[in-house]
Design brief:
The structure is a single chain. This protein is an all-alpha fold. The longest helix is centred in the C-terminal third of the chain and has 25 residues. It is globular, with a radius of gyration of 15 Å.
Length: 129
């Protein structure tokens, strides 16, 4: 599998995590996922990954670690902005976005950003180091 395939697989898993944050995948969340992905070129792969995780009931912390690793390995990508929008839409689909869902989304952004910052600092250490 190439990096993009891993990335979109991770996106499906990440959206699954967001849906599970409020206790389980709601029909409204699944419908929002399909609607917002619409004609995205990788929609089938992302939805397949979402459904796969839903069928396996894997440990959510392990899934999150796998997602962060795949996204970090891929490196910064313009698709991250769109995926945050997808997560926001899925979170809001059932009873509105809850605090735990917002925390999960913000945590993902922060975790990934911190990893990328560390990479940059390794490549371009400050003169103070």
């Amino acid at each position: 599998m190439d990096n993009k395939t891993y990335l979109y697989d991770a996106f499906g898993e990440l959206i699954y995590l967001i849906a599970m944050t409020d206790g389980g995948v709601q029909a409204e969340e699944r419908a929002a996922l399909e609607r917002i992905l619409g004609n995205h070129s990788w929609a089938k792969e992302i939805i397949w990954s979402f459904d796969y995780e839903a069928s396996k009931n894997n440990n959510l912390e392990d899934v999150y670690k796998k997602v962060i690793s795949a996204c970090h390995h891929n490196g910064p990508d313009p698709e991250f902005k769109f995926m945050v929008e997808v997560m926001e839409a899925v979170a809001a689909a059932s009873k509105g976005k809850e605090a735990a869902e917002e925390e999960q989304i913000n945590g993902f952004v922060k975790d990934l950003t911190e990893r990328f910052k560390r990479d940059i600092e390794k490549l371009y250490p400050s003169e103070e180091d």
